[in-house]
Amino acid sequence: xxxxxxxxxxxxxxxxxxxxxxxxxxxxxxxxxxxxxxxxxxxxxxxxxxxxxxxxxxxxxxxxxxxxxxxxxxxxxxxxxxxxxxxxxxxxxxxxxxxxxxxxxxxxxxxxxxxxxxxxxxxxxxxxxxxxxxxxxxxxxxxxxxxxxxxxxxxxxxxxxxxxxxxxxxxxxxxxxxxxxxxxxxxxxxxxxxxxxxxxxxxxxxxxxxxxxxxxxxxxxxxxxxxxxxxxxxxxxxxxxxxxxxxxxxxxxxxxxxxxxxxxxxxxxxxxxxxxxxxxxxxxxxxxxxxxxxxxxxxxxxxx
Length: 304
What we know:
9 helices; Double Stranded RNA Binding Domain; single chain; elongated; 4-stranded antiparallel sheet
């Protein structure tokens, strides 16, 4: 494994709960602060452990004669070494340990870890000078969030799974907390809806829903599953999803679950399945050219 093989994973955004905010500047009355984002050294270590646990090493040495504790750090990842200096902050944090943490983070940035934080827009917010913390935290933009936090329910699922990582807690209150996050995630992914398969009142005859605001109904989803699980098709789940993606013209965004379909896409796939006279011919075409157009199957006489 080379550094280039893992570069993209090193550069991935951190979960929002691992991103902290500190003041870069304060207003004269210390009621407002220019906030900058950061991650601590533990988050950097966890990222390296998750990606290349046996192939990284950090060393540092004290730099003498500086007004604040300063170290020279050296981080090696998969045989590639990058170096930088770290300084301790003021006050209680002004220790050699703080300087070493700063050096590790600065070296890690040279590998792309957390570098995206420097691209965040400047944010002036209300500041509680007594508590030394912002009153309101800035909202991270979508591009500065990991993939699971950009989709509905993703953050709830991650939080719940972290609590379930070892085992379900014995404490009833914690169990309820886990349940609350799972319920919130599933509700976000599959919002309550009417499963009446009849068209909405706003639709004219022959019209189909044309946006993802109109999710697939249970009736349409059930009909697709009933066909593809039957004797004529005999498809396993992963094949069913890939084949349905193809029929619905979702080749650039394959399905993780059939619930990701809109009603319009579901009806389109269902119509192709119901018209098909020769399932084996259509499946063969799909497997031979999954990037092609399903409509081309008509030329082969696969559908009637």
